[in-house]
Amino acid sequence: MVSNQMSTKGLMPFLQYHRKTIYVSLLALLSLFLLLDYLPGMHAYSAWVTPPVALFLGLAFALLCGQAHPKFNKKTSKYLLQYSVVGLGFGMNLQASLASGKEGMEFTIISVVGTLLIGWLIGRKFLKVDRDTSYLISSGTAICGGSAIAAVGPVLKAKDSEMSVALGTIFILNAIALFVFPLIGHTLNMSQHEFGTWAAIAIHDTSSVVGAGAAYGEEALQVATTIKLTRALWIIPLALVTSFIFKSKGQKISIPWFIFFFVLAMIFNTYVLGTTETGAMIGEGINSLARKMLTITLFFIGASLSRDVLKAVGIKPLIQGTLLWIVISVGTLAYIYLF
Question: What share of the chain is helix, strand, coil (3-state, %, to 5)?
Answer without folding.
Answer: 85, 0, 15
